[in-house]
Amino acid sequence: MGDHEMMPHHGTAVSSSLTSAWNATGSMRRHRKMMVHNTLMHNTFFWGHKTEVLFQGWPGSSTGMYAVALTFVFSLAVLVEWFNHHFSAIKPGTNKAAAGFFQTGMYAVRSGLSYMVMLAVMSFNGGIFLAAVGGHAVGFALFGSRGKKSDGS
Predict the structure, then answer these.
(1) Digit-coded pLDDT (tens) for 96-120
(2) In the chain, at which end, N or C, are there fewer CB atoms within 10 A of the end residue's CB?
(3) Residue 21 · residue 98 · CB < 8 Å
(4) Cα–Cα distance for residue pair 128/71, rounded to 1 Å
(5) pTM (2 decimals)?
(6) Contact 66, 127 (CB under 8 A)
(7) Nearest-CA neighbor of 103 among 83, 117, 120?
(8) Strand pairing partners for 35?
């Protein structure tokens, strides 16, 4: 394949281009970028507010909407940590079948939220990555760290 090529992608054309750059050791490194639905998709981390996160066209090129996307991903990661540390205990005397269905439902919700954070990070945007890691760290500090739990002593 050449430096610029068209590849089929689920019924749409995907334009791919290869660019070359010198790395720190002086050797040539090739980067691949793809255009899908007229949107540039990165395969390496990049910085900037012009990106797509989770949904086509969102947040777009608006700096304000990018800030909303960062806040959303941060909040999702905090919520995942809350689910990780608050939905494991079932009250004594609860119907075991009902408790099992409830736990299964909460596990499905937690898994779905975790996958949304993962998909957001797959935008390869550095800010989104830092928001996800920061959200997990803050969520763990609030809900999961031993320093915040009372052990009854």
Answers:
(1) 888 888 888 889 999 999 999 998 9
(2) C
(3) no
(4) 9
(5) 0.66
(6) yes
(7) 83
(8) 15, 40
